[in-house]
Prior knowledge:
The chain is an all-alpha fold.
Amino acid sequence: MRVFGHPLHPMLVHFPIVLWTAATAAYVWVAAGASESIATAAKFANGAGLIMAMLAMLVGLLELRSIARDSEAMQVAIWHMMAMSTVWVCFLAAMLLSQSTGLDRATARVGAVACAGVGLLVMGVGGWLGGRLVYEFGVAVRGPRKS
């Protein structure tokens, strides 16, 4: 899927990366005792990251059609999708924990930090796999144009 000749998936993935990184930092800050305004910022950044990641995942699924089914690139793409889906679930869990009323507030905050931290680490692995798709297998890369 391309817009003005550029693949859309790589354009979209930057948003959840930045938003979730900011959310993780804010969750840590909140667990350390920051004000409720930082907690609100964490929830906003996380929620926006979840929405943008859904868009990126949908576009990524559409772009999956360009990879040969029996190729090594498809195996890497499947691992990439599993990793990034796990990240999405981790940040959803962080969001739910940060809004939890059934748990002790301190426990919920530490749980949100733990989920976001794991999500951030797995996102690094998923990003590396996505990089392999582009730089090793040339997925969504066109050859040089002839003038």
